[in-house]
Prior knowledge:
Keywords: Membrane, Transmembrane, Transmembrane helix
Number of helices: 10
Organism: Desulfurispirillum indicum (strain ATCC BAA-1389 / DSM 22839 / S5)
Order of helices and strands: HHHHHHHHHH
Protein name: Urease accessory protein UreH-like transmembrane domain-containing protein
Low-confidence stretches: none
Number of domains: 1
InterPro entries: UreH-like_TM_dom
Shape: globular
Largest sheet: none
Amino acid sequence: MDILDNLYFIAGIALAGGFSHCIGMCGGIVVAYTTAKGEALSRWQRLSGHLLYNLGRTTTYVAMGALLALLGIAFRLDRTLHGIFFVAVALLMVVIGLQFLGVGRIPLLWDPASSGVFQQTFRRFTRSPSLWSYFGLGLLNGLLPCGFVYFFAAMAAASGSPLQGALIMGVFGLCTIPPMYLLAISIDFFKRYQGLRRLLNTLAGLSILFFAAVFLYKAARLTGFVPVT
């Protein structure tokens, strides 16, 4: 199963998770900057700003995907090492999938939001009347720790090339724009559909577990536990 052959499946997971997980995890940030900026900008500027915010997130994700894929190439130098890397990726996916299903949580090893520089920059962008401050907020948001991001980051790292890694993370970012944009312009919309959000969360979790199984199978073939036919 080639990752790029299944971009439509990856996009589906991103869209489902965007309407369920991302709304809950990043919704507070959207509400915070929307409230802080108040009426300083016109309605058209605010709508444009929300789009710039999401493009900023996607920009960070694309850069992250290319970098992780570049690092992942090092594990392809040895077949056994490559298999072990795939096992690690699969185990991470299992943890993320279970979290989507309400089982356990991923511990945070490091949170950039705890950095004084990050907090000061975030506050500066939040209070700025500049339209491009939305883009800056999006760039920062893309750095925040998130289990859903970790899933796509793991796929990018295992993709085999910086271009493919960037594409995977780019698809993720673009597919999460619709739910985040809708949240920015209509917060009440998501309060009415909690049941649908739970269903989408479950579907995303099961899909992530499916990919985990695929990566475990690939690892078994690379390490010789499953014969290559």
